[in-house]
Amino acid sequence: MDKILVHGGRKLAGRVRISGSKNSALPILAATLLTKEPCVIHRVPDLSDIHYMLTILSELGAEVERASGTVRVRAENITTDAPYEIVRKMRASVCILGPLIGREGEASVSLPGGCVIGDRPIDLHLKGFEALGAAVSVKSGNVRVLAPHLKGTNVSLRGKFGSTVLGTDNVMMAAALADGITIIDSAAEEPEVVDLANFLNKMGAKIEGAGSRRIVIEGVKELHGAEHEVIPDRIEAGTFLVAAAIAGVNVTLTRAFPEHLKAVLDPLGQAGFHIETSADQVTLKANGSRKPLRLDTEPYPGFPTDMQAQMCALLTMTDGISVVTDNVFPQRFMHVAELKRMGANIELNGGTAIIHGVPKLEAAPVMASDLRASAALLLAGLAADGVTEINRVYHIDRGYERIDDKLNDIGAQIERVKV
Ligand code: EPZ
To answer: How far apart are CA 53 and CA 261, in angstroms?
Structure first.
C-alpha cells in the first residue's frame, strides 16, 4: 500500500495533458458486450477501475487486449453471470447489466454494496429494465434480470436527486436491441452519456437526443463492432484547474474540452481567476486576490458533485465565507474532517459545508476515504506549510492517471512511498 507525501509551497506552471475520461470509458467498455464482433477503444486511461472492468469482461468470456491507451475487446461467446469478487470492488460494474440483458436476454450481477459518498441505490436502473418488459428479482445480494423479449417503451429516470448517469447508460444499452422505440425522459445529460451514445451509434444503434433530457432509441436486431476514441476526462481537467487555482501561476491544460467544463470555469472566474480557452485547451492564471463562493452541485450541466471536494479545498484558503451544498450526494463530505486536521475552518450542516477562509493550512497526516476526497487532500497539501502525508492513496489511483507525475512535471514536489 502506498502513501503520498506532498511538499507544500511549490508554485505550479506549465502544461498538463488530460487523459481519457474514466466515467466515459467504463460504460463504453461494458457496451462492447453488445456485439460478437471486435471493438477498439482509444484513449482508455490507465486506472484501477478500468482494470476491474477489463477483468469483468474477461471473466464473462470476452477476449481483451490492451496496448498502452488502446483496448481491443471481442465478446464472441459470453456468460451472463458476473463474479461477485470483482463486481464488489467497483459500483460502475452495474453498467454491464444493460448490454447483457439487451444481447442475451438475461443477466445476474451482485447488488452494489455501501458507498462512503452516500446512498447509491439502483432502483431507477431496475425500473427502466422492467419498463422494457424484463422480470427483475433480487435474492441473496444478487440482481437477476430475465428479459427474453425486450419491447420499446416510455420511461422516466427522474429520481429524488435528479437523473441517473449510469441508469441512463444501462437503459439506453438494453433498449438499443429492444423491439420498437424507447423514449427515456429525465435522462442524464452528461457528456459521458453522449460519448456512449456516439459509440453505440457507430455500432449500428439508432439513438437520438443524447445530451438532452429526452433520448429516443429505435431498437435494432443486432450491433456490429466499432472503433472509438474516448472524450477527455472533465473531472481530471477540473481537478488540475483547482490545483492551478490553489498553487499555480499559469497552467495550461491540453486536450481538455472547455464546453464540458463551463460549470467549473464559471465559478473559478467569479472567484477572480483569469481563464483563457480555445478548442481543446484551457489556461488558468492566478490573479492575486480570491473571492469566496456559493456552490450548489447539480446533475450536468450544473456544477458537478465530482468537483465539490476539490473546490472545498480551494475555498478553505479563500478569505471570507463560502457555502458549498451537495444536492446529488448530500453526505459526500468525508474530506471535511481531514481538511480540518490541516487547520481548515468548516461547519457541516446537513448537505452543506460553511467554509470560513483561513490564511494558510498546515501539513498533517490525513486519510483518503474516496476518489475525489483524496484529490482534495492532495490539492490542499500543495499549499500547506510542510509535508502532508496522505494514506490509502489507492483511492486516487482509481480515477487519476499518474496525478503525482503530472503535478511534478509542472513544479510540484510529490513523492509516493511504500508502507
Ligand atoms: C456517476 O455515478 C459517476 N460514476 C459518479 O462519479 C458521479 O458522482 C455520479 O454519476 C453523479 O454525477 C460513473 O460515471 C462511473 P447517479 P452514478 O446514478 O451513475 C441517486 C466519480 O467520482 N440514484 O447519477 O452511479 C443516487 O443515489 C464517481 O468518478 C437513485 O436514487 O450516479 C444519487 O444521489 C463517484 N436511484 C443520484 O441519483 C438510482 O437508481 C445520482 O446518481 C440511481 C441513482
So the answer is: 26
